[in-house]
Amino acid sequence: MSLSVLVLGSGDAFGSGGRLQTCFHVTAPERTFLVDCGSTALIAMRRHGVDPNGLDLVVLSHLHGDHFGGLPFLVLDAQLVSRRAEPLTVAGPPGTERRVHELMEATFPGSAGARRRFELRFAELEPGERTDLGGVAVAPQEVVHPSGAPSLALRIECGGCVLAYTGDTEWTDALLPVARDADLLIAEAYTFDKRVPYHLDLATLEANRERLGARRIALTHLGADMVARSADLDWEVLEDGRTIALPG
User: Fold this and answer.
1) Is residue 66 flagged as an active site residue?
2) What is the C-alpha to C-alpha distance for residues 44 and 126, in angstroms, rounded to an integer?
3) Which residues contact 206 (CB under 8 A, 6 or more apart)?
4) What is the C-alpha separation between 98 and 223, in angstroms, rounded?
5) Which residue, among 59, 5, 10, has the nearest Cα to 246 in the 3D structure?
6) Which one, of 123, 120, 149, lies nearest residue 134 by Cα?
7) What is the pLDDT along the chain (248 residues), one digit of tens a residue?
8) Helix pair angle (96-107, 71-80), 10° resolution
9) Helix, strand, or coil here: 82?
10) Which of 12, 36, 56, 66 is flagged as catalytic?
11) Its pTM surpasses 0.90
């Protein structure tokens, strides 16, 4: 078994370096899903030939617009353009269903309660509890990033692989059980060494690299100074449009 991760967005909230907002398209033998769905997600899917109807799940780390703001567009596309018929599940922190409905009403009034040909389902990810989403097992830990609901680092087991993701957070030891022995840890590196509240910088990641214990670490959510330095770093840095294959 194996896992394939297509980077649909590796940037910060502000488009630094022209990068799109956070979104990862994960393909496993029996499941295809998104990890985060920033507001540019549907644009990236069209750009890279990803069929929205091929998704059956969206897993959210937290409820900031650059991580879940693409959902109204994805849902409306499913309803009006792609003519989705199969259910779509959105899994995220407690409060996700309410926040998604509020976001849909803010962006497209009347859309949250519209009749659809498909079922839009919601699942809550409780920090510290493992949740089985039909062959995708998610073990979240709460991290330090205020977003109106618990923000989560995600440990995802699927296709015989472990994909770990810090989400957005300042350093916390809650990242350690998420990253330990993961086949791939996707880690925020918003700045090079400047400490920004509620975000990770590369210097802090470097200081904790061995403690994290992941087999492979790749950087995402790059701010402007990280984009400028990315070619010279002794780290794997994600780029929009890149695909990573993980053997199971």
Assistant:
1) yes
2) 29
3) none
4) 30
5) 5
6) 123
7) 689 999 999 999 999 999 999 999 999 988 999 999 999 999 999 999 999 999 999 999 999 999 999 999 999 999 999 999 999 999 999 999 999 999 999 999 999 999 999 999 999 999 999 999 999 999 999 999 999 999 999 999 999 999 999 999 999 999 999 999 999 999 999 999 999 999 999 999 999 999 999 999 999 999 999 999 999 999 999 999 999 999 86
8) 70
9) coil
10) 66
11) yes
Amino acid sitting at position 109: P
> What are the structure tokens assigned to 245, written together?
């294959």
Which residues are within 8 A (CB) of 115 and not within 5 positions of it... i.e. 6 or more apart?
none
Residue 162 amino acid letter: V
Residues 141/177, Cβ–Cβ less than 8 Å? yes
Residue with tokens 């790059």: 222
Half-sphere exposure of 24 (CA within 13 A, CB side): 30
